[in-house]
Amino acid sequence: MVKKKPILEVNHLKTYFYKKKKELPVVDDVSFHVNEGETLAIVGESGSGKSMTTLSIMRLVPSPGGKIVGGEILFAGEDLLKQKEERMFKVRGNDIGMIFQEPMSSLNPVLTIGEQLMETLIYHKKISKREAYNRAKEMLELVGFSRVDEILRDYPHRLSGGMRQRVMIAMAMSCDPKLLIADEPTTALDVTVQAQILDLMKGLSEKFNSAIILITHDLGVVAELADRVVVMYAGQIVEEAKIVPLFDKPFHPYTVGLMESVPNIDEDKERLASIAGNVPTPDQFPKGCRFVTRCQHAYEKCVTEQPELMEIETGRKVRCFLYEKGVRYDESAAARTE
Asked: Could you say which of 98, 161, 258, 270 has the lowest number of CB atoms within 10 Å?
């Protein structure tokens, strides 16, 4: 089996916001990679830093206020943090496609679907209007539209949420990107449409051999689409693993809590489990472990020291003192064992 190369490597990425001379680490020393043709899911609650990580990759951090202050983002070996804005215009939409969370706010309400699809193609591919129109038709057919000429003449408000999301996928994939970033692509869609969108993304990824970064808090979506998972909490990665081992046995107490909060058809529970409290805001991060105020297994060290992200098995990383050398979390006893 040929080992796939990373198409994207994020190393020690730090993105801070500044408020009243306060430094707020919204993405704090984040490192991960995505292989060619692979789907990597980044999961976590709202406020965990998922979307800001991908906006940093695209160099779209809101400014003034936000700034990438450290690290490197290697895309096909090229450090995007060292590129001029003109180069980033060519990368965005061409080499890296992005599907934003709310398609209605991502599509221009005063331009037709055809005008928006063609604009992307003409800018990046330097093709004629006729070629762009034919390519736009082809992409809409690929994402499941039948009356494509009519859709191309329509405005966004005339389409349903699921249809607009299909248009966004068509637009993101129209230039054959090497990497697709999908930020909550099925939010606010009903279950049937969600399944269709996921199947569509999976099929297009295979057709174009595109890697995908999937941003979501929905573990059902993760199980359907992802090869590997990165779990984020309060701006840091707390666990990383392949999909099957993670679902089979999550390690970090936060990941365990996320898994237990998902309904299971095989279990008869009156109430779902939940994680007490909320993700702290960057100006209220604890001194020690970021999860300490919500963790049932925290002890003295967790309050004063911050754990490192450790590789405890091949391809398996966790940020927790329960997995230090010589210390292992014993699930049955719900305590540390020396």
From this structure: 270
